[in-house]
Amino acid sequence: MEFIYITKRQADILHFLIEKYIEKAEPISSGLIEEISCFNVSAATIRNELQELSRKRFITQPHVSGGRVPTDKGYRFYVDNLPNSGDLLDIRWQKKINSALANISNEPREINKTVAKLLSDLSENVVITGIADEDDFYKTGLANLFESPEFREINKIFRLTSFFDEFDKVFNDIEKEFFGHFSDDDTFEDINVFIGKENRHPGIKDETVMTAKYNLPSNLIGSLTLIGPTRMHYEKNISMIRYTTEKLNNLTRKI
Q1: Do 112 and 128 contact (CB within 8 A), yes or no?
Q2: Measured between alpha carbons, how far is 185 from 188 in angstroms, rounded to an integer?
Q3: What pLDDT, in 10s, does the model give residues 205-225?
C-alpha cells in the first residue's frame, strides 16, 4: 500500500473539514475553515494546505469554484485516527441504550430485533442483526436513509432499495465478506469499517458499512451490520456499537 505523508496541520484541517461536512452536508470552503477554526494561520496557508490534501486525494472539489468534500481515502484516514473508546459516547445515548437493554429478552432473535431497532433509531441508518453461521437475520431502518441529502436522487434510492430487497439472497456472501475479516485474534470489541469502494458489493459502493460481533444466549454469536452514507457520524456510531456490544456481552454472561 502506498504511504503518503500528511503533516499534523494537514491532518487537523482534514479532521475539521470532515467534521463540518458531516454536520452541514455541503462542500466546505477555505473561507469557512478560516472563519470558524482555531488554526491561527493565514487564508493563503489554509488554501495551500487544502490544495495539498486535494493533491494527496484526501479531499476533492466537486465544482471548480466551490468548497471541498472528503474522499473515501480522507474518511479512512479520519476513522483510523479516531479515539478507540466507547467511553466517548454521549451520556444521553448511553442512557437510551441502557434503558433499551435493561429488560431485554433472553431469546436470541428477540435480542437481535431489539438491538437492530435501537441502533437504527439512534444512528438513523440501516442496521441488520443476525446469528452467525445461521441464515437468520433482522433488518430495519431503510426509511431513515431517505431523510439524508445523499439519497434524494432516484437512482441512489433505487440502487439501495434493490440491495436491501435482495439482501436475503446475498446474505451469505455479504456475511462472508464483512465478517470474514475477523480473525481468531479479534475480540468482540473489534469493529470493522468499510468505506465506499472498500465495499465490493456494487449496491453499497457509495456507503459505509460497520460490522461487529457479540455474544448471545445458548452459546450463539450475534452479528451486527450498520449501513449508512459515507457522510455519517463515525465517532458516534462506532461508540454506540462498541458500547452496545459490550453491554450485550456483559448481559449474556448472566443468562
Answers
A1: no
A2: 10
A3: 889 999 999 999 988 999 999
Q: 122-145, pLDDT tens digit by residue?
A: 999 999 999 988 878 899 998 888
- For the entire predicted model, the pTM comes to 0.88
d(CA 191, CA 36): 32
DSSP secondary structure of 7-54: -HHHHHHHHHHHHHHHHH-SPBPHHHHHHH------HHHHHHHHHHHH
pLDDT at 182 over 50: no
Q: d(Cα 234, Cα 91) in Å, to the nearest integer?
A: 17
Return the C-alpha cell found at 137.
437475520
Q: Which helix (H) or strand (E) holds 229?
A: strand 220-229
Distance separating alpha carbons of residues 3 and 165, to the nearest angstrom: 39
Q: What is the rounded distance in angstroms from the CA atom of residue 45 to the CA atom of residue 37?
A: 13
pLDDT at 122: 95
CA distance 151 to 143: 10
Comparing C-alpha atoms, which of 242, 249, 247, 250 is closest to residue 84?
A: 242
| 228 CB neighbour count, 10 Å cutoff | 25
Query: What cell numbers appear for 99 in the block?
Result: 434503558
Do the beta carbons of residue 236 and residue 247 sit within 8 Å?
Answer: no
Nearest-10 Cα torsion for 54, 64, 41, 72: -30
- What CA–CA distance (Å, rounded) separates 172 from 222? 14
